[in-house]
Amino acid sequence: MLIQHQRAGTQSLKKFLKSSLDQLTTKTDLLKTRLEIPQSLSAKAQARYYSSWHYSVIHMALTIPQLNTRENLLKHFNLSMERLDEILQFLIQEKIISKEKNTFKVEIPFLHLEKHSDLVSKHHLNWRVRALQSFEEIKSTDLHYSLAFTISEKDWPHLIEHLMKSLGGCAEIIKPSKEETIAALCLDLFKL
Predict the structure, then answer these.
(1) Ramachandran category for residue 36: left, alpha or beta (phi over 0 → left; psi -120 to 50 → alpha)
(2) What are the backbone dihedrals phi and psi of residue 157, each rounded to the nearest 5 degrees, phi first?
(3) CA–CA dist 159, 163 (Å, integer)
(4) Domains of the chain by residue range
(5) Please, what is the Cα angle at 136 between 174 and 123, to 5 degrees?
(6) Is the pLDDT of residue 56 over 90?
(7) Cα distance between residue 106 and residue 178, in whole Å
(8) Which of 116, 107, 110, 96 has the alpha carbon at shortest distance from 36?
(9) Distance (Å, rounded) from C-alpha 192 to C-alpha 183?
(10) What's the gap between Cα 134 and its chain centre?
């Protein structure tokens, strides 16, 4: 749509496309609000947290009672003790988690990276690389789906809105759900 806006031959078409772009931007900006994620980290902390998928997976793993100890995290994940300690120390330092005796408690359950952040591509890339690794594990409980398709320009915003509603619906399931397993959701929709 950005390209169409730039190439528009008339002012009325340019104005129409600008309005459509603004609506899409507003809908996308609503994702943080729709998912009710109130907090973000400082720029320095974000750079570290989003440098590797390990930070967010350990963060989320600590919400599961069976994984809220250092020993259980070491058993569950294939990380060195040094790497795990580095991640835990960072999460404590940023007050994302706290430590009580031998267990860890999540203080900030959800984080959000603004879509305009320079780290967004790194964050998505980290999880796409992890998704590629999951292809080799071949679990019947996993869902991997790729589809190339054609669609009309007028239906494109409707498709985006449908997916945004679906993500909101996913959040409604995830938030009250009991913490028992760790999962990742990677969703890509883009024009070619």
Answers:
(1) left
(2) -60, -30
(3) 6
(4) 40-192
(5) 50
(6) yes
(7) 14
(8) 110
(9) 28
(10) 17
Q: Could you give the maximum distance between any two Cα atoms of the chain, in Å?
A: 67
| Token pair belonging to 63 | 């919400």
pTM of the model: 0.69
Q: How far is the C-alpha of 123 from the C-alpha of 154, rounded, in Å?
A: 30
> Measured between alpha carbons, how far is residue 131 from residues 26, 88, 148, 171 in Å?
29, 23, 19, 20
DSSP state of 38: -
Find where tokens 């028992």 sit.
180
- Name the packing angle between helices 120-137 and 53-61 (round to 10°): 70
Structure token digits, residue 85: 């300690």
Q: What is the pLDDT of residues 3-20, one digit of tens each?
A: 665 666 777 777 777 777
Cα 111 to Cα 117: distance, rounded to the nearest angstrom:
13
Task: Using alpha carbons, select from 183, 190, 179, 184 the residue that is nearest to residue 62.
Answer: 179
Task: Report the residue count for the chain.
Answer: 192
At 105-129, the pLDDT tens digits run 999 888 878 777 889 889 989 988 8
